[in-house]
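Subject: complex prediction, re-run

Hi both,

The earlier run crashed halfway through, so I resubmitted it with identical inputs.
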Amino acid sequence: MSLSAHSAPHATRPGTAVVSRLACTLVQPLLSRVVRRIADRHPSLFARLGPHQTTDFLIDPVELPFALHLRPDPQALVFRAVPRDAAPRGGAVIRGRFMLLLELIDSEEDGDAAFFSRDLEVSGDTEAVVRLRNALDDIDGSIAEETAAMFGPPGRAILARLRRAYDAHPKESTAR
Amino acid sequence: MSLAELICPAGTPAALRTAVDAGADAVYCGFQDATNARNFPGLNFTPEELAASVAYAHDKGAKVLLALNTYPPAGKVDLWRQAADTGARLGVDAFIVADMGVADYIARTHPGIRLHLSVQAAASSPEAIRYYCENFGVRRVVLPRILTIPEIRQIRREIPCEIETFIFGNHGLMVEGRCSLTNYLTGQSTNMDGVCSPASDVAYARHEDGSMSSQLAGFTIDCFGPAEKAGYPTICKGRYTAPHRPEGYYAFEEPVSLNLSRLLPELIEAGVHAFKIEGRQRSKSYVRGVVTAFRRAVDDIRAGRPANMADLVALTEGQKQTQGAFETKKWR
Ligand code: SF4
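This time it finished cleanly. Structure:
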């Protein structure tokens, strides 16, 4: 599935490469913590992923200066920020606005509906995307809130602010 | 007045709990294999998950219906029989079946458990429905989506079982259960393998101009313009060129979902016993939204109030909805 996510990838803009690499370096420690925590708390996720535990997923929040590379292998979990021009080829690509992706992970939004409306774009290995979607959908509770809670009151405040911005302008980028 | 039970979909245990909490009277689900018509990757229940889910539903007064609604290939019935035995052991409230051999096995082996006839059986005449009732003890028929409300009312008078109709969701109705289009392209059978347009055969590509094409087994079946709403990658909803229509057109049907929210009072009056919501492949978000909306509407109607129905168009395929044949036979 390919997403018409209303924004051109940042990597095509002048000066983006430097910003992107810097941002990746800054967020990487947080991402490692977040993914480890999610994997520990929701081990049932991996069974639904089946053979796609070793697939490379590129999660591309269109308004952020980097994409996210996920390989949900319980033996060697990878979740890292990557500049778009250095993203892994192959595997599956999921593209959309950051808050839409977050709402999809938490099943606050319906993935098929976001696909029908063209807010969500998927390409590459469709079966891998379907498995990841179904695995995440079987999780109770909010991964976004669990993640925010890891960073205490500042984390929750940032999430609340992002949600307000998204609710006010659901079709626009929220984190430029 | 009929009971107007709300029959809701669940592709995962979390979706089942969501449906029950949102007011489902019954939830239908399936195992992780070809015994049901939503055999999608990463979807459905293990026996352990079903056991916990049945306990959850029963605890809250809801029923669990197990879909065994595909057709075993000739001589390969063991998987279906084992699934029926497992379901019976776990305490499901009914089996939804399409194949006569599966129906016969359950009727003889688990006579205490209700049998519902799946839409996949495509039984649309009183004669056909009575045949299943008389020979296998079927207690409820899920009607194909090709009948008008007057026709449903007439059938109700001539059959000895309850009627269930779809009221919302995906609308692929190529003579329910008899569609071979996917099989033609992918070699996988909707009715025997339990999957239409298997995800492993689906590919999407975004083009420079912002348009997006969808392919099944290497064949392009649609191309959506940059601002156009999209649909499922099923052949029945594909847009094709032909010598007389070089611009491309929906040869079978358009991407659109069924929504009968405005017809609920008439359906109840016609004697429909249960309303089915399609969408085991959809998310908890869909289940929560659709079940909550129809719960409220059915409760309003039963209390004699005008139904207060939420707008569900954002959840429909192609963001379009229809009342299909329920409204008029002119609908193709
Ligand atoms: S192609 Fe359409 S009608 Fe045929 S099985 Fe698939 S969804 Fe149903």
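The pocket of iron/sulfur cluster is lined by residues B 172, 174, 179, 181-182, 190, 196, 234-236 (CB under 6 Å).

- K.
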